[in-house]
Amino acid sequence: MAECPLPVPSSCDCFVSLPPATASDTVIFGKNSDRPRDEVQEVVYFPSADYAKGVKVQCTYIEVDQAERTHAVILSRPAWLWGAEMGANEHGVCIGNEGVWTKEPVGEEEALLGMDLVRLGLERGGSAHEALQVITSLLEHHGQGGSCKEEPTPFIYHNTFLLADRTEAWVLETAGQYWAAQRITEGARNISNQLSIDTNITEEHTELRNHAQKQGWWSGEGKFHFAEVFSLTHQPVRMEAAKARYCAGQELLRLHAGQITVETIMGILRDKASGICVDSEGFRTTGSMASILPQDPVLPCIHFFTATPDPSRSVFKPFIFAPSITPFPKVWSPSFGSEDPVKKVPRFRSLVDRRHKLYRKHQSALEIMEADQEGQKLQQTMQELERQGLEAMKQLLAGGISLDPKELADLFFDCVDTEIKFYK
Questions:
Q1: Other C-beta atoms lying within 10 Å of the C-beta of residue 278
Q2: What's the pLDDT score for residue 10?
Q3: What is the pTM of this model?
Q4: Is-contact 185 168, C-beta < 8 A?
Q5: Active-site residue flag, 12
Q6: Coiled-coil segments, which residues (predicted)?
Q7: How many angstroms separate the Cα of 56 from the Cα of each of 22, 66, 67, 109, 323?
C-alpha cells in the first residue's frame, strides 16, 4: 500500500468484522490507541461489584451516580485517567473511542471524557446496544469535556465510538450532547477521527434534527445526512489526515472480505504504510487490542492486548474472563494518590513516571530491535511467541484443547510474565 501523504493525525482507528466478512462465525473487533508518544498505557481488570443506592463514582474529572451493579471489565487505558481507550466486559461487549471535531464547539469545562464513557458503557452494558444506551444517557445528562492529554495546554475533542458484541455492532457518533447511531449486522466497518454516519441512522438524539435546523446547518428538507450536516466545513489538518487513514482501513477490510480473522485485524493494526499504526515524532500507537467474539455463546470471547507501544513491535497477549482472575501488576502503572498531577488543581503542572514493568522492558527491547541482525532475531522470536498464543486460542475455540478455570484465570498474567522473562 502506498504511504499516506498527509500529516499523521493524533488519534485512533477502530475496526469490526461480522459474518459474512469474517472467515468463521465470529465477530472480530480491533483498535489502535494513538496518543502522545511518551504516554504509558496500562491494562487493568476490575471484577463485577455491587453498590448501595446513591453511591457516587469519581471519573477522571467529575462524579456521577454509580450503578447498583457493575460488570467485570478488562481495560486498556492511559495510566493517568479513570476511563479507557478500549476494553471488554464479561458479556462479550467491546468498545473503543475516537476523537472528533464537529460544528458543535468543544468546551473547556470539565465533564465526562470519551474514555470515561467507554468504561461506563462496559461496566453497565450487557450488550452493545445496552452499552450505547448507557453512553448516550450519560452524555445527555453530564455532557463531554475536559482535556484529553496529560499536559497544561488543553486538548479537547468530542467522540465517536465503535461497540460490538457476539451478534452485532454499533457506530455511535457525537457532537456535544447530540448523537446519531448506526447498527451493523453484517460485513466490516471502521471508524477514524471523523463523522461517517450518512442517512443510514438507526437511532438518534430526540432533538438532533431540530438543533441542526435552528443552527442553520440543515434546511429540514430531503434526507438528513448526519456527517454532512455536523462535519466542519474546513477540517483541521488532523482530520484531513484521518480521511486517508479511514479510506485505507476500508480498503484493507475490503481486500480481506470473507476471510477476516483476528490475525487479519492484528495485521491491519500493524500497518504503518497506511498510517493506521502511528509512529511519528509527537504521537504513536501506545496500545492495541483485538478480540474474537464467537457467535456460539458456549465458546469464550478472547481479548488480546499489547500493553506496550507500536503493535508492529509488540506481542498481543490473550485474556479470557474467568472466576478469580489472577492480578497482573506488571502492566499496572504506579499509583501517586492525592499527589497525582491529574488530581491537583490546576492540573498537570508536573510530570510523574508512569511506566510499568513490561513497558520498561519493552523500551529496552525496542532499542535492540532498531539494530540490524540482533533486532531481526528479537522480532522473530516475539512473533513466534505470539503465534504460539494464537494457535493455542484457535485450538481452544475448536475444542482441541481445554483449559481449567485456574489456567484461564492465569492466562494473561502468564503471558506477560513470559514476555518479561523473554526480554531479559
A1: 25
A2: 53
A3: 0.96
A4: yes
A5: yes
A6: 368-395
A7: 41, 5, 9, 20, 27
Number of neighbouring beta carbons within 10 Å of residue 270: 18
Residue with cell 438524539: 205
The C-alpha cell at 135 is: 453512553
And the C-alpha cell for 74? 478488562
- CATH fold, domain 13-423, is Penicillin V Acylase; Chain A (3.60.60)
Q: Please give the average pLDDT of every successive group of 10 residues along the chain, which has 424 residues.
A: 42 94 98 96 98 97 98 98 98 97 91 98 98 98 96 94 98 98 98 96 98 97 96 79 90 98 98 92 94 97 97 96 96 96 95 97 86 77 92 94 93 95 84
pLDDT at 11: 64
C-alpha cell at 1: 500500500
Cβ contacts of 210 within 8 Å, gap of 6 or more = none
DSSP string over 339-400:
G-TTTSSS--SS------HHHHHHHHHHHHHTSSHHHHHHHHHHHHHHHHHHHHHHHHHHTS
DSSP secondary structure string for all residues of 212-265: HHHTTS--S-S---HHHHHB-SS--HHHHHHHHHHHHHHHHHHHTTT-B-HHHH
Given the residues 12, 148, 301, 415, the one annotated as active site: 12
End-to-end, the C-alpha distance of the chain in Å comes to: 35
